[in-house]
């Protein structure tokens, strides 16, 4: 069954809005059945029920169900470590509680003189990165956290590239995701942040974590996932296996996780110069067509897009800025205006 596909130019690249139902793959014999929660077209009410059911299955696999249930009782207890004045914003390093037993450091940009509530973005680095690199213009991230801060956004970044599990009975992906959810908690605690306009964005592992945060945290209004949209079969070869945990493949492929963001805004960026072994546009377009099903069922097909830009494994900064400005309806307002 094939639906309509739409191509248009956007942010310097091609955007693909596709609706294509692709037959699911089931393994044979004694092997486990993979992707038994694959999304298929249904009514909007049934789509919402599917999302609720899938999240309920993913929380315990991520080993986060206890933390999610008790999040309101975990005080942030923020402590300011340092503060630096930049062009129009303060760059602050802050330490907060992630769990009752573990604290994390975050880097936060807060506009100077803001008199109205501001949009905010959780900015995510990839492998070998850290919370500071998303603010650096000469990196693969093009300093997108700085660019957003200079436009009046509140931005926050945490370290999510660890390959060790800090607490017993947790998972690596679960701990990474939980730290990001605590970043959202911290953003919500800031008086200048508009709670209805919190987004997330990142590259590579950061694109993966943006997928997870947008999927599992309903407070995220807009998700930018760069250099990651692909299929799990592709990630089984020549990639760090930190994405995988017990029970995941039996439930879903990445398209299904991204489908949990619907009907909220989602932009994926993949570079046309990505090699076939990495994150090629062809695989991204295939996955986007599946994601498009649930957006169509919600009547919001325009909210799921793929930007195929002309570079490789890198943030497309103009596309990112346009996406957040459009989806979060950003308006400059400072003291004296």
Q: Can you walk through the features of this model?
A:
- The structure is a single chain.
- The chain is α/β, with parallel strands linked by helices and 337 residues long.
- Helix content is 31%, strand content 26%.
- It is built from 10 helices and 11 strands.
- Strands 1-2-11-10-9-8-6-7-5-4-3 form an 11-stranded mixed beta sheet, with helices on both faces.
- β3 and β4 form a beta hairpin.
- The longest helix has 19 residues.
- The N terminus and C terminus are likely disordered.
Q: Report the sheet with the most strands, covering strand number, pairing sense and barrel closure.
A: 11 strands, mixed
This entry's quaternary arrangement is single chain
Measured by DSSP, the beta-strand proportion falls in 25-35%
Number of helices, where a helix is a run of at least 4 consecutive DSSP H or I residues: 10
Radius of gyration: 19 Å
Shape: globular
Biggest sheet, strands in spatial order? 1-2-11-10-9-8-6-7-5-4-3
End-to-end Cα distance, whole Å, is: 54 Å
The ordered string of helix (H) and strand (E) elements is: EEHHEEEEHEHEHEHHHEHEH
Task: Give average pLDDT, whole number.
Answer: 89
Q: What is the percent of helical residues?
A: 25-40%
